[in-house]
Amino acid sequence: MANSIDPVLLLQDLIRCASVTPTEAGVFDVLERALTPLGFTVTRLRFEGRDSYPVDNLFATRGSSGPHLLFNGHTDVVPPGDRALWTHEPFGAEIADGLLYGRGAVDMKSGIAAFVAALSEAPATGRISLAITNDEEADGINGTARILEWAKDQGHSFDFAIVGEPSATARVGDSIKIGRRGSLNGRITVTGVQGHVAYPHKALNPLPIAAELVSKLSGTLDDGSEHFPASNLEFTSIDVGNTVTNVIPASATLRFNVRYNDRWTPESLEESIREAIGGLDDEGTTITFDVAGTPSRSFLSPLGGGVEALIAAIEDRTGKRPELSTGGGTSDARFVAQSCPVVECGLPGPTMHKADEHVVLADLADLTALYAAFLKRYLGVAS
């Protein structure tokens, strides 16, 4: 086709933009130059406020009839870290021995490059949109969630979505994510009375109560559900702000995260934690509990429609039905799931966030071909 796009060259151009969150670094210029000749109307969106930093985003759309397919992804990357650990320039997009190196090569500029390249080979039929943010790796506040709010206000509604995050385990298409656990961050503060360690009767040490809370709350909260593993609470820090050995601290702050399945909501989880904390106040010690930030809810996309079309496309190409996974952490799919069924489908990701992050060029070609096959099937285009 006249506007055929090479996913390797596009990925190299994207990687050469040092788009560490939230710096856009020209990465949307690259995407706009690729999408406009394919008939997409590209809108740049900058959102700010809500106690977070300003973020640049991109929304592109083409077509006005038929099922509305959404592709979601992020162009922001984590910092490269210690450059001395890299054998290739983090933003050089160098190719060696069938590998393309660079920060974001796997997570997840590869998914974006593969999808845009697949679009360039697909007939310009159906209704397709892309929601690309430069804020997924950090706050995630002024990114995908805000794009979807804006799109709804503009009259857009979606029937199915693919998020191009790394989802495969060993080979492209062996696993897709049809759901994710929810995530809730919490903070507990135990307040006592500061004093000299030689006179403990004149103080009230908060640490024994803090230790009891850690013991009581840590671990699994249930035995799992049909599609999800057990919910789990893990403490991540205990801080008393004490730099000396002869002072009993006034308070101890405990932070934790819960990854929870579809047996819970943020509201029911918060209520259960408060009930567990209750009754542990001891001789004047007070305990406060707050949910930090906005929890993400668990979701599970129903089979059928776009999900089955993607499964069928994978089965046709690989000869095997993919594993339908709900494992891992969180992604922007949690925001997309509030608008339509969503699946994460991308590359294997063993090097994401590591030094010398890289993508296997053969995998990039396979993912592009898989997206192209799905587009034909979803849009009803005869082979």
Can you tell me about this structure?
The protein is an alpha+beta fold. The chain has 9 helices and 20 strands. The protein has helices spanning 7-15, 27-35, 109-121, 144-153, 207-217, 266-277, 305-318, 333-336, 361-378, and strands at 41-49, 52-62, 68-74, 95-96, 99-101, 127-133, 160-163, 175-177, 179-180, 182-191, 195-196, 219-220, 232-239, 247-248, 251-260, 286-296, 299-300, 323-325, 342-344, 358-360. The strands form 6 sheets. The protein has a 6-stranded mixed beta sheet with strand order 1-2-6-3-7-19, with helices on both faces. Helix 1 (7-15) runs antiparallel to helix 3 (109-121). The two termini are 16 Å apart. The mean pLDDT is 95.
Summarize the structure.
This protein has 383 residues and is of the alpha+beta class. 26% of the residues lie in helices and 27% in strands. It has helices spanning 7-15, 27-35, 109-121, 144-153, 207-217, 266-277, 305-318, 333-336, 361-378; strands at 41-49, 52-62, 68-74, 95-96, 99-101, 127-133, 160-163, 175-177, 179-180, 182-191, 195-196, 219-220, 232-239, 247-248, 251-260, 286-296, 299-300, 323-325, 342-344, 358-360.
Low-pLDDT segments: none
Give average pLDDT, whole number. 95
Cα Rg: 24 Å
C-alpha end-to-end distance: 16 Å
Shape: elongated
**Percentage of helical residues?**
25-40%
The strand count comes to 20
Strand-residue proportion = 25-35%
- Helix count, per DSSP? 9
* Order of H and E elements: HHEEEEEHEHEEEEEHEEEEHEEHEHEEH
Secondary structure class reads: alpha+beta
Give the biggest beta sheet. 6 strands, mixed
Strand line-up of the largest beta sheet:
1-2-6-3-7-19
